[in-house]
Amino acid sequence: MKLRSPSLFWRTFLLILLLIAASLAAWVQSFRVFEREPRAQQIAQQVVSIVNLTRSALLYSDPATRRFLLSDLADDEGIRVVPLEPTDQVKPFPDIPLIGLVSKQVIERLGPDTRIAAEVNGIAGIWVSFEIDGDRYWVFIERDPLARDAGTQWVRWALASMLLSMLAAIAITGVVNRPLKRLSDAARELGAGRRPAPLPDAGPAEIRTVNASFNRMVGDLAKLEQDRAVLLAGISHDLRTPLARLRLELELNDLPESARAAMIDDIEQIDAIVAQFLDYARPAPQQAREDIDLSALVADVVSHARLDERDDVRIERRIAPGVRIAGYRTELARAIENLVGNAARYGRDPETGRLDLTVELSVEGRHAVIAVADRGPGIEPDAVERLVRPFERGEAARSGQAGAGLGLAIVDRVARLHGGVLALEPNPPHGLRARLRLPLG
């Protein structure tokens, strides 16, 4: 399944969040680098002070009270003094930049013979060696000054900062994408055949230029639609007037019945072709959609076609009751008429010559589906896309059937006008099923 590409809003939003996260990461790393040296000096000074104070206390305290002093240091300050033995199991600190700086400064201040360890004889902590009268000792600092006690306050600050950053990213993304969203909505309205509201002449110069150009294009297209409608109306009038005179003269003249019928049929074909041209060229309605009882509309169109009055025609109706959609009644009626008329024209059984039609209205999820199926010769799968284009006709139509090749193109235009889709499918064992899928509501 092809994944749907995220919208421009989400792309911009994620990009801003990514930039914020990268900036914060760079800032944190820079802070750690620049803060490392002062912190190392502070920790080293603290360790050196503890070692020096402990050594001084042992040197200048009364031997009788020295034991109590060591006990108080261990209980109150977590500092112990133990002899340094050659057999001590010593584990050094890991190779970390901060610890390396601390160790270097401690050794510089206490002397090159000073040893620093992270663990001695299985006891973890800070171990620093010193010497008194030729005897070497360990100072064990239980409270690790290398461990920063930041508490949980930073978590609250981090969450607050992230929330503010997300709100700022949403606001910035909305401001940046709002003009493009308006332009996208207007283009979608224009693509559906409706005239969108003019875009505002506001914002940056580039946005104002694009909006002005789009508004001018919409105006030009509207004028072109009006001119085309006037032109076609004039052509229709100029063609139908002589056609009406020709038919009147045929009725009044004493001609053989077969010749009169053939000539009248030709005139009706020309009139039908002109009507199809007008239907296809008619601009999309600009008024608001109305609530339509699609079940009643389909039943009326099929009834007005009067196909089942013939002996060689059978129509099966499967119309679900109470199906309603929001749309344009005239356009939908024209589309259903074209589907039924197209099936009646080309859908006869090639073996029996009978016309078996099935007209169905059903609800599939949040869509209403109008299906007209016949038992005719059908069409090739590779011809489906071609037949919904204007002025394209099937093989049966080329063999003498009337029509200008606009019937299915008109249905496809009506489907797109309502946000739906027209699909042509095979109807086994032979025949064609035309499905007009329209959104409900």
Written overview of the protein:
The protein has 441 residues and is α+β, with helices and mostly antiparallel strands. Helix content is 54%, strand content 17%. The chain contains eleven helices and twelve strands. Strands 1-5-4-3-2 form a five-stranded antiparallel beta sheet. The protein is rod-shaped, with a radius of gyration of 45 Å. The two termini are 28 Å apart. The model is unreliable at 396-400 (pLDDT under 50).
Q: Notable features of this structure?
A:
single chain; 11 helices; five-stranded antiparallel β-sheet; Heat Shock Protein 90; Beta-Lactamase; 3 domains; alpha+beta; Helix Hairpins; 54% helix; five-stranded mixed β-sheet; 441 residues
Secondary structure elements and pairings:
Layout: H1 8-60, H2 66-77, E1 79-83, E2 90-91, H3 97-110, E3 116-120, E4 123-132, E5 135-141, H4 153-191, H5 205-252, H6 257-281, E6 290-293, H7 294-305, E7 313-319, E8 324-327, H8 329-346, E9 355-364, E10 367-373, H9 384-387, H10 395-398, H11 407-417, E11 421-426, E12 432-439
Parallel strand pairs: 7-9
Antiparallel strand pairs: 1-5, 2-3, 3-4, 4-5, 6-8, 9-10, 10-12, 11-12
Number of E-type strands: 12
- In percent, how helical is the residue content? 40-55%
**CATH architect. name of the largest domain:** 2-Layer Sandwich
**Top-tier CATH class of the largest domain:** Alpha Beta
Distance between the termini: 28 Å
Radius of gyration, taken over Cα atoms and rounded to an integer in Å: 45 Å
Order of helices and strands: HHEEHEEEHHHEHEEHEEHHHEE
According to CATH, what is the topology of the largest domain?
A: Heat Shock Protein 90
Number of H/I helices? 11
How do the strands of the widest beta sheet line up side by side?
A: 1-5-4-3-2
CATH H-level name of the largest domain... which superfamily? Histidine kinase-like ATPase, C-terminal domain
Structural class category: alpha+beta
